[in-house]
From TrEMBL:
This is Carbamoylphosphate synthetase. GO terms for biological process: glutamine metabolic process; L-arginine biosynthetic process; pyrimidine nucleotide biosynthetic process. NCBIfam families: PRK05294.1, PRK12838.1. One of its GO terms (molecular function) is ATP binding. It comes from Toxoplasma gondii VAND. Keywords: Amino-acid biosynthesis, Arginine biosynthesis, ATP-binding, Ligase, Magnesium, Manganese, Metal-binding, Nucleotide-binding, Pyrimidine biosynthesis, Repeat.
Length: 1053
């Protein structure tokens, strides 16, 4: 939603630091959702995306079902398109103006319309007239748009030589900023076919051993075949490579001279053409930041950024060339290499500033080939593990359910058993909890309902003699037990091997002192910290670090025994509890108010690494992540933030040698690029279960397979059935997790949230917008809530934070944390009491925080004021304010006012029928309404949700999954309904009859709800609608065409 200020941000070569070219070449932008009112507090943000695009004259359209569009392109291939927008002059000529649309009919006119019909009240007549005027205006806009679309010519970029358009026109020389006068100068000639600025930066700003870099950059058609230089670099570029005949001819002459050559993207295709191979146009192309590519020399898989529509035909390569890389998804060529000469290329972008740079090492390989000094090259070896056959494996469960360790470990353990059984392994489970799936009769081969302690597990090992033990699927309980078994020598005595992550890696992540030392070895840091084995040591450590500090118990679950201390007295109090759970405590510098971000990372025995999901806490650091609302993927990080933390996560998991899945948590300073690593969990966790369900990636199942020695490349994506498990999921939706409390059962519990987890469960919701997923989740957390609902707000009073009782107040107070609810129509003293409690709640949050935010917005608090009190990011707060703004708009309307477009707009932000009725009833002119009245009106207008799949790759590949969610921001379903069974056929028949009756009664639907793909297959002019527009305003048409056939998709805004 934002861009940084760039006019003065240039390097010493005059290149902009944050852009890849001198201007924007993209012709238009299509997005699913855009909120121009969203506020960003990112320290780099200087402008909104909308304003920046307006400056560069790049049109954009939002409100599109991008998933349906992706599916269509996947099937028919790339298509031509138009976005048609009326200018202000064209609006005036068509008789359209926003002021005219905003004008409402007078009361007199409404009464006149009601004179001839006694059943039509003036209010209803006025509402009907408003609807008719809006519909008439939309019809006028539609006609004007269609007339302009007919006269707007198609523009086919494939007819142009795009390389000639984007290539520089003059020769320029650059010298490296990292220069050693004692080293040799190396001249690299770069052919600019649309060369990205980050290629300049990587070559000029990186320190390469034994040489200084000089770049000579020439245009695409420059005659360089006979020039003198040390190495040839062929850059990326757009369009058909066969249009670059001059470049290909020059490359052939360089190949004859045996000068080292390295090509990227288009450079890969040009090198192949120069070698005598052929290229072809792909149906869809490979585009995105998460394309998995396999190095055919080592079988390592890398995540790469790509954007190309042509590929090399491997079957036409001459005998002296070999494929170097292959795409793990569609098996297309991703690079070639000569058998004996220093020629190689990559189809992807190892230099990309906007994506992963996992393959930057290729630049080093290129420089090494130029130096021609074999002794200077680094030796790389490929990790190899000899096949091992496991006959019997012991799986440690998590024991009884407790706060911080509940059903998510039953899920992970069950998935592990499934993976083991597929390998014909005899599975033994130790878990005393009978109320789990993993202890069911059909799961494990043998179950011991015993405590997961070293004493009992030792006896099981002695009796069963397993070949290996899995300890990362049972939470902290299983992990602690395995560490004790290792320290006691039990595992070595009975020849029982820990599968997956080595025990040394587990200990290193759990012991804070070892953990910090290991991170320092790779240049990463944790917040200033010290370990203590008694209270006096903890007090001295706190004084040395400086207050406030965080006290944490080692090897503890869910932050048990932890807390923030502002003084010595608090340190002693917290340590008293912490040492009851552990023999060691950690004293950490407090980072309250920083962002908390998590990454779920997977690594196999061959060092392939991927990040499956990243998540962001709505609450700042200081509240346990188990008690915080969590959003996936992150919403407030910049692209640079995301990939910087991703690169760190991969570096950390490789350094510790973790095999399987791990979770890494960061504290990120919202006002700078500074971050600390909070902790690394070398096991499945609550976040792992959330990430697995959020992305559709079976983390626990894959982790179990990896523990047995499989690699990510060998395993398949269980959703697509045709791609590998070595990929990073794409999410075209938002997932929100909201914790659930039940503090009424724990009267002595402090209700305030902090570093120790207190929630007893959580819910997860999925939507196309943050507002939609949040409101869905809130309705599941509290059945009384309609969504982001101030009416369920209550307060927890404590001796420390409660305001003094006021005479006449309608609030009840209790020092034990009794729930106190407020109502409407309070006295002045009651309002003062409410304000005081609200202030305390925002300052020291309890489980009531989200409802208190709803109340605060209802009372007129601003985003800035709430940010100051809560430190919640302004982006999240502005989204909550958006929900509140829609509530207020609803109170000014009646049910008859709501058009089909209004319903889609409201539903896009997660409002339920009950919630809509609740706020319409607050309108002075509204009669008593129920959710059933709203539902009937909604169905009458044809407003129904679409069914979407959680398919891991955002519709780029066909999915085979029944993992679904509903959303109103869609135009078709990803799956078809199942055929009715005989036992329920009558029910379905009745539903179909009711649906036919509703459709016959509709007068404004036409064919608007028909499937996009069906419409496109039947007609050359189809209407794609997610609603008739958010409000009377500008409309846009997206017109798509392919070959001789033209297909029109209409999106109204």
């Amino acid at each position: 939603y934002f861009v940084c200020f760039i006019s003065a941000l240039q390097d010493e070569h005059g290149l902009p630091k944050y852009f890849e070219g001198d201007r924007i070449y993209v012709r238009a932008l299509v997005v699913a959702d855009y909120d121009n009112a969203a506020v960003t507090a990112h320290f780099r943000a200087e402008n909104s995306l909308s304003a920046w695009m307006n400056t560069h004259k790049v049109p954009a359209i939002a409100g599109v079902d991008t998933r349906a569009l992706t599916k269509h392109l996947r099937e028919v291939g790339c298509m031509l398109g138009k976005i048609v927008v009326l200018s202000e002059e064209e609006e005036r000529r068509s008789g359209l103006s926003l002021s005219a649309l905003a004008a409402l009919p007078s009361a007199t006119a409404a009464e006149q319309r009601g004179e001839n019909d006694a059943t039509v009240t003036p209010d209803k007549a006025e509402a009907r007239l408003r609807v008719e005027r809006r519909q008439a205006a939309l019809t006028m806009w539609e006609e004007a748009i269609r007339n302009k679309a007919k006269n707007l010519p198609w523009e086919d970029p494939n007819k142009d030589n795009l390389v000639a358009l984007v290539s520089r026109k003059e020769v320029r020389v650059y010298k490296s900023t990292v220069v050693d006068p004692n080293l040799r100068d190396v001249l690299i000639l770069c052919v600019d076919c649309g060369m990205k600025y980050n290629i300049y930066r990587q070559l000029l700003h990186s320190k390469f051993e034994h040489c200084n870099i000089i770049l000579k950059v020439v245009p695409w058609d420059f005659d360089f075949g006979n020039d003198e230089f040390d190495g040839l670099f062929i850059s990326n570029g757009p369009g058909d490579p066969e249009r670059c005949e001059k470049t290909v001819a020059n490359i052939r002459r360089v190949m004859e001279r045996k000068i080292p050559i390295f090509g990227i993207c288009l450079g890969n295709q040009l090198l192949a053409l120069a070698a005598g191979a052929r290229t072809y146009k792909m149906k869809y192309g490979n585009r995105g930041m998460n394309q998995p590519v396999i190095d055919l020399r080592t079988s390592r898989c890398y995540i790469t950024p790509q954007n190309h529509g042509f590929a090399v035909d491997e079957s036409t390569l001459p005998r002296d060339f070999l494929p170097l890389f292959v795409n793990a998804n569609d098996r297309s060529n991703e690079g070639i290499i000569h058998r004996t000469l220093p020629f190689f290329s990559a189809q992807f972008h190892p230099e990309a500033s906007g994506g992963p740079t996992d393959t930057f090492y290729l630049f080093g390989d290129f420089i090494a080939s130029i130096m021609k000094a074999q002794t200077l090259k680094q030796v790389h070896t490929t990790p190899f593990s000899f096949p091992q056959k496991f006959q019997k494996v012991l799986l440690l469960g998590s024991g009884g359910l407790s706060i911080g360790q509940a059903g998510e470990f039953d899920y992970s353990g069950s998935q592990a058993i499934k993976a083991l059984k597929e390998q014909n392994i005899f599975v033994v489970v130790v878990n005393p909890n009978i109320a789990t799936v993993q202890t069911s009769q059909h799961m494990a081969d043998r179950v011991y309902f015993l405590p997961v302690t070293d004493e009992f597990v030792t006896k099981v090992i002695e009796k069963e003699m397993p070949d290996g033990i899995l300890c990362t699927f049972g939470g902290q309980t299983a992990l602690n037990c395995a560490v004790k078994l290792h320290e006691q020598g039990v595992l070595a005595k009975f020849g029982c091997k820990i599968l997956g992550s080595p025990i040394e890696a587990i200990i290193a992540t759990e012991d804070r002192k070892v953990f910090a030392a290991k991170l320092e070895e790779i240049g990463e840091k944790v917040a200033e910290s010290a370990a203590a084995t008694n209270t006096e040591e903890a007090v001295q450590a706190a004084k040395a670090i400086g207050y406030p500090v965080l006290i944490r118990a080692a090897f503890a679950l869910g932050g048990l025994g932890s807390g923030f201390a502002e003084d010595e007295e608090t340190v002693r109090r917290i340590c008293k509890e912490a040492f009851s759970h552990s023999s060691q405590v950690f004293v950490d510098k407090s980072l309250k108010g920083w962002k908390e971000v998590e990454y779920e990372v997977v690594r196999d025995c061959k060092n392939n690494c991927i990040t499956v999901c990243n998540m962001e806490n709505l609450d700042p650091l200081g509240i346990h992540t188990g008690d915080s609302i969590v959003v996936a993927p992150s919403q407030t990080l910049s692209n640079e933030d995301y990939y910087r933390l991703r690169d760190t996560a991969l570096k950390v998991i490789r350094h510790f040698g973790i095999v399987g899945e791990c979770n890494i948590q960061y504290a990120l300073d919202p006002n700078s690029e500074k971050y600390y690593i909070v902790e690394v969990n070398a096991r499945l966790s609550r976040s792992s279960a959330l990430a697995s369900k959020a992305t559709g990636y079976p983390l626990a199942y894959i982790a179990a397979k990896l523990a047995l020695g499989s690699t990510l490349v060998e395993l398949s994506n269980s959703v697509t059935k045709e791609t590998t498990a070595c990929f990073e999921p794409s999410l075209d939706y938002v997932v929100t997790k909201v914790p659930r409390w039940d503090l009424r059962k724990f009267e002595s519990c402090d209700p305030l949230m902090g570093s120790a987890m207190k929630s007893v469960g959580e819910v997860m919701a999925i939507g196309r917008t943050f507002e939609e997923s949040l409101q869905k989740a809130l309705r599941m957390v509290d059945e009384k809530a309609g969504g982001f609902d101030e009416s369920v707000c209550h307060f927890f009073s404590t001796d420390e934070d409660s305001a003094p009782s006021l005479p006449g107040s309608d609030f009840k107070t209790s020092s034990s944390g009794e729930c106190m609810r407020g109502g409407c129509g309070r006295t002045d003293s009651g309002a003062e009491r409410q304000a005081a409690l609200l202030e305390a709640e925002l300052r020291r949050p309890s489980p009531n925080r989200i409802w208190a935010l709803a109340l605060a917005f209802q009372l007129g608090w601003t985003v800035d004021a709430l940010h100051e009190k809560t430190k919640i990011d302004k982006w999240f707060l502005s989204k909550l304010q958006n929900i509140n703004d829609i509530k207020r708009q609803l109170t000014q309307l009646t049910l008859d006012d709501l058009t089909r477009a209004d319903f889609f707009y409201i539903k896009k932000y997660g409002f339920s029928d009950r919630q809509i009725a609740q706020y319409l009833m607050n309108s002075p002119s509204a009669a008593a309404l129920s959710q059933f009245d709203v539902r009937r009106r909604r169905l009458h207008l044809g407003v129904r949700p679409s069914v979407k799949q959680i398919d891991t790759l955002a519709a780029e590949f066909p999915a085979h999954t029944n993992y679904l969610y509903l959303t109103y921001q869609g135009i078709d379903d990803d799956v078809s309904p199942l055929a009715a069974t005989p036992s329920v056929s009558a029910v379905f028949a009745g539903a179909r009859a009711e649906k036919r009756e509703e459709e016959n009664a509709e007068t404004c639907r036409d064919d608007e709800d028909e499937s996009l793909l069906r419409r496109l297959s039947k007609s050359s002019s189809a209407r794609l609608r997610t609603g008739e527009g958010d409000a009377p305003g500008k409309q846009c048409f997206v017109v798509l065409g392919r070959r001789r056939r033209q297909e029109t998709l209409r999106i109204e805004r």
